[in-house]
From TrEMBL:
Protein name: WD40 repeat domain-containing protein
InterPro entries linked to this entry: Apc4-like_WD40_dom, Quinoprotein_ADH-like_sf, WD40/YVTN_repeat-like_dom_sf, WD40_rpt
Lineage: Bacteria, Pseudomonadati, Pseudomonadota, Alphaproteobacteria, Hyphomicrobiales
SMART domains, sorted: WD40
Superkingdom of the source species: Bacteria
Pfam families named among the record's database cross-references: ANAPC4_WD40 (PF12894), WD40 (PF00400)
Domain Anaphase-promoting complex subunit 4-like WD40: residue ranges: 261-322
Matching Gene3D superfamilies: YVTN repeat-like/Quinoprotein amine dehydrogenase (2.130.10.10)
Length: 324
């Protein structure tokens, strides 16, 4: 049976991540907590809104209500990467080659590795940011579609239109697909080779979490009493294929999903604090954590896949040791 090391914090956990292997918890009040030979805390922002792990997993990228974008090391050092005045940072994402994307309202920013800051004006509020796995192409989710921009050059953006509010966005690991979460309890996708539309619907609740399996064969999602896992194999991706339903619980809702870094396994966090792991191949389940306090808001595997860090909307956080 896996063991759980709990950490009871105050408030909403925006992101629970392993930063250079250190369990790290970014909270909505702007504090960042680390379990590094004891419980340690730094004040990162005056109100934290978003956080993302850097591409190399060595630092945590954060943005707050104070208009600052910061990089926090595994030892707690804070480096301010950008300041845009008293504007809320609404989205943040890491990209290839040390690039960072973030947004405030209708403006997106791309910070290159050398510190150069590029500004992208949008007609609608930026609701999500994702970088293609290769090159410096950034995708911005917005109302009625997605805007695609080459960050390293001055070129006209490409617009992908689909009616509705697109609230989050992700590229497949091979860059062949782009998928958005939507306000209307559905996913929408585009095949990048020909921009063919893909619609994935039938969710009883809004999808707030997406996670690709380590080879990109599966896309796991929340928004149902189970993890809804779509197959992305063959030229048509999930079109015409039913999804897997893993870890089904009739009395609970999956609020967060995280795929294992080296196996076709997904960790599923629920609105009652329970965590299950389920295998795509045969649906086999393992209980990782019993129900706790608050809906789970964040999950992250360690790079070796032996531990899982979690956080909830009520500050009920901790680490699950799978090997115990």
């Amino acid at each position: 049976m896996p063991t759980v090391a709990p950490l009871d914090l105050d408030g909403y956990c925006v992101a629970a991540r392993f930063v250079s292997g250190i369990p790290t918890f970014a909270m909505a009040d702007g504090t960042v907590h680390r379990l590094d030979h004891g419980h340690k805390t730094v004040e990162a922002h005056d109100g934290l809104l978003v956080a993302s792990l850097s591409g190399d997993g060595k630092t945590l990228l954060t943005g707050g209500e104070d208009g600052k974008v910061s990089r926090i090391s595994a030892t707690g050092e804070i480096e301010t990467l950008a300041e845009i005045g008293r504007k809320w940072i609404g989205q943040i994402a890491s990209g290839p080659q040390g690039v960072i994307g973030f947004s405030s309202g209708r403006t997106a920013y791309v910070r290159l590795a050398d510190g150069t800051l590029k500004e992208i004006a949008c007609e609608r509020t930026v609701e999500g940011i994702a970088f293609a796995p290769k090159g410096l192409r950034v995708a911005l989710a917005r109302y009625n579609g997605v805007t695609l921009v080459w960050a390293g050059m001055d070129s006209k953006p490409a617009e992908l239109e689909w009616k509705g509010s697109h609230t989050g966005i992700t590229f497949s690991p091979d860059g062949k697909y782009l998928v958005t979460t939507m306000q209307e309890q559905a996913l929408h996708g585009w095949r990048m080779s020909d921009l063919h539309d893909m619609r994935m619907s039938g969710y009883p609740a809004k999808v707030k979490s997406l996670s690709w399996s380590f080879k990109g064969k599966w896309l796991a999602s929340s928004g149902a009493p189970a993890a809804i896992v779509w197959p992305f194999v063959g030229k048509d991706g999930p079109m015409g294929k039913p999804p897997l339903e893993l870890g089904t619980r009739g009395d609970a809702l999956a609020t967060i999903v995280a795929c294992h870094p080296a196996q076709d396994v997904v960790a599923i966090g629920f609105n009652d604090g329970m965590i299950l792991a389920a295998r795509m191949e045969d649906g086999k389940e393992v209980l990782l954590r019993r129900p706790g306090k608050g809906a789970l808001s964040s999950l992250d595997w360690s790079r070796d896949g032996h531990q899982l860090v979690f956080g909830s909307e009520a500050g009920d956080c901790g680490v699950v040791d799978i090997t115990a």
